[in-house]
Amino acid sequence: MDTEFTLTSGIISRLIHAQGGENDLWTSGPTLQFISIKKVPSTSSPVDRYRIIVSDGEKYTQAMLATQLNQMVTDEAIGRHTVARIDKLTCNVVQQRRLIIILGITVLGKASDKIGNPDNIDIPIAVANPTAAPAPAVAQQPIHQAGAPRPQAVPNNRGPVVFPIEGLSPYSNKWTIKARVTQKSDIRQWSNNRGEGQLFNVTLMDESGEIRATGFNQAVKDFYDKLQEGKVYYISKARVNLAKKKFSNLPNEYELALEKNTEIEECLDQSNLPTVKYNFIPLSNLESIEKDATCDVIGVVKEASALGEIVSKTTHRELKKRELTIVDRSGYSVRVTLWGKQAEQYEHHDQPVVAFKGVRVGDFGGRSLSMISTSMMNANPDIPEAHALKGWFSATGSTENFQSHSNAMPSVSSGTFNRAEVRTLSDVKESQLGQSDKPEYFSSRATIVHIKADNISYPACPSEGCNKKVTEGADGQWKCEKCDRSYEKPEHRYIMSMSVADHTEQAWFQGFNDVGLAVFGMPANDLVELRERDDAAYNAVMHKATCNTFNFSCRAKQDTYNEQTRVRYGITRIMPLNYLEEACVMRDLLHSDWAR
Amino acid sequence: MSDQRSPRVNSARLPNYLGQTVRLTCKILKLQGDRTIVQASDGGEVAVIQLSGKSALDPYVEIVGRVEDAQTIKAMTSINMGDNLDMKLVNDCVELTHDPRFASMF
């Protein structure tokens, strides 16, 4: 049980005494043992921090665990006497002592006891670069209690040595980060009771993480044009503030404010450029992501809709949008919505591979994706997944049939036709679906046997989005109570009660306008007019509408009407049959175990 | 007349029905006068004779005819099946009709 661990002896001493420029030291991956781990409550942030005494067998010193690794302590992946290889570390100077910050580790194992007999490295260092700018008396890192030193991050000269974004905190002020602008917002004006101004923000990313930076007023003029999406910059002397979570959904506790004395310089050194880190989810797994969460996906754009415009119900402003349908090798497709300028500027006519980062998951039609302000879209990125996708698509993918998250075809979730959950009507009735308080969903293939003819439509308010019933006044005008307006003619909308049956049972389904359109093949207005004009033709239409078979997605729910409680089946989706698909389903079923 | 059976076959099953009437759903490959070369649902090629050219033939047809030998059918009538047919589905269907599990149905 007690394997021999070899610690990198002498490394602690070297780390503590290193002067600027010894980059390799920080990436050398030394093996150290954790002598003790202690939780330190943070005064300035809600996240706890862990202080670890690390030893190389000869000396020990204090180290802080980067918050993104906190999980390892709570999961007990690391603990007292753990031996680990420190893949990534940096250090801050506090009270003239160097404090190691552990950013990344690989656990090698847990020793049964302390290795060697290390003693405290505890030696105040000679600081290599004295502070030129006036250093404010800042309260220090939330670990030690006394004094007000001048925190300086040592391996921090401009040039090759940079600070990781994860290591930024309000207590370090002489830092430089090298980061890529992954997203830049438009310039926004605001005016509220405290004044007005303009602002813009960018998302900066390096290998350690991401952080948002905002520039106000003067900073907009200074930096807006300078910072370009996709380019890498050295940034220093921006203020580190606590993140305003309301305006950003990046996982960083802090954010940067670009100020008058902030320095931004484009990085022309092509090596070591931070690249965007993606964590792609195959489209087939989208159901497991919660609504409103964000994720990264990559796929081939099979279709791109034309630029459309909708009016936002909340702000009543026009919004430009475009829908892309992307597919990937998991065999699924999903719709991604682009907004505003991105929608307008999308000009790819081929079928590019596009990588999306931080798109929000919605449950429209099952699952859908939407670009939000912090999302990123990158067409034909130079990453291995993109090349693999391109190859797959040109070989087989372009002709494949995909399971869709946003269409009428087989998938999960309410409202779409879930092939796996198809029930016969007798099954639906026997299982008493909908008898409990919650609505239950099912799918069925059934044939329309009879449509209740007495009430197939109602006069509705013609204004966009309002479907309320309008009443005819004495003057012949139709009044809508909700919109408080009168109209010449109402817009008729279908409301139907149909008897449907399959080979097992019969049931009554209720449907609205979309159902009527599918069943009758004409808008309600036309049918109502036909009824008044030509009785025989109307009857013919009604007759023709029966005996058609559809796939239905339904919601079963209890309804109380005049003291009578019944289960009513509402149609959420009606889909005409694709005979080829249905035949294939039946063929597959005959080939499956069920048929044995 | 009630005993007019015409089981649906593919090229591999032709030898089982020599001299009998069958249905072959196929894709027309070549028209050579009185002889038409077609591709059955399992990919095999069959020659069809006396397939009348009176009515226009779709790319996919179903031939009802008598099996002359393992590669030839003498056509009696044909049914147009359009220009888009999933031959794999057709073949699965043919195989399923001959499946012993469903012998009572066919």
From TrEMBL, chain A:
Q: Which family does it belong to?
A: Belongs to the replication factor A protein 1 family.
Compartments, as annotated in UniProt: Nucleus
**What is the protein named?**
Replication protein A subunit
What's the stated role of this polypeptide?
Answer: As part of the replication protein A (RPA/RP-A), a single-stranded DNA-binding heterotrimeric complex, may play an essential role in DNA replication, recombination and repair. Binds and stabilizes single-stranded DNA intermediates, preventing complementary DNA reannealing and recruiting different proteins involved in DNA metabolism.
Occurrences of domain OB (ranges): 175-257
State where it is primarily located.
Answer: nucleus
Q: Which domain of life is it from?
A: Eukaryota
Assigned keywords, A-Z? DNA replication, DNA-binding, Metal-binding, Nucleus, Zinc, Zinc-finger
Q: Name one GO cellular component term.
A: DNA replication factor A complex
Specify the Replication protein A OB domain's residue ranges: 283-380
How does the annotation summarize its subunit structure?
Component of the heterotrimeric canonical replication protein A complex (RPA).
Q: Which residues cross the membrane?
A: none
Query: Which Pfam families does the record associate with it?
Result: Rep-A_N (PF04057), Rep_fac-A_C (PF08646), REPA_OB_2 (PF16900), tRNA_anti-codon (PF01336)
Give the molecular function GO annotations. Answer: DNA binding; zinc ion binding
Residue ranges of every copy of the Replication factor-A protein 1 N-terminal domain listed in the record: 7-108
Segments forming a coiled coil: none
Residues covered by the Replication factor A C-terminal domain? 441-583
Q: Which InterPro entries match?
A: Euk_RPA1_DBD_C, NA-bd_OB-fold, NA-bd_OB_tRNA, Rep_factor-A_C, Rep_factor-A_N, REPA_OB_2, Rfa1
GO BP term, example: telomere maintenance via telomerase
Automatic annotation (TrEMBL), chain B:
Question: Where is the protein found, in the record's own terms?
Answer: Nucleus
Matching InterPro entries, A to Z? NA-bd_OB-fold, Rfa2
One GO MF term, please? damaged DNA binding
Annotated CDD domains: RPA3 (cd04479)
The record's principal subcellular location, in a coarse class, is nucleus
What is one cellular component GO term in this UniProt entry? DNA replication factor A complex
Q: Which GO terms describe its biological process?
A: base-excision repair; DNA replication; double-strand break repair via homologous recombination; mismatch repair; nucleotide-excision repair
Q: Does the keyword tRNA processing apply?
A: no
Name it. Replication factor A protein 3
Please name the source species: Rickenella mellea
